[in-house]
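hey so u asked for the seq, here:
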Amino acid sequence: SPFYRLKPLATYRLEARVLSARDYSKERSAEAQISPVDFALGWGVMAEPRIARNIPISQDHRFYHFTTPGNPDVDTVALHSANTHMVPINDEVGQQLMEVKKGDLIRLRGYLVKVVGDDGWTWKSSLTRSDTGGGACELMLVAEMSKEE
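ran it, structure tokens below
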């Protein structure tokens, strides 16, 4: 099987509400081997439980989708949330990530990364908050994770 190298692009820490979580660990793709779970994360206004509850969010094919009732507007939601591909640094962090539930408030520390396969395949994190669509997701190597009570 291919060998993958992870190249850090930026240090990354955040505290965010898990708006949705999607387990890809049973899939056989390279992406699933590297990143077994995606979190749709919200911060600022999108970390407020009453706001988060009113915005339906779904995840599939490594993307997240939302509809907004108009308050907050689409731009606000997009600027205060992100679909993040979680790459655990070790099995312990991997286990912690798999136990996270929708609604949890979590604190993360690690790196946004680019993955390079020895076959030339690459998967690269977004480094900006204002992008949407393909390539807009964050790819995060998680060094530490904790749940806030």
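The domain at 4-148 is CATH 2.40.50.140 (OB fold (Dihydrolipoamide Acetyltransferase, E2P)). Helices lie at 30-34, 49-53, 74-79, 91-98.
lmk if thats what u needed
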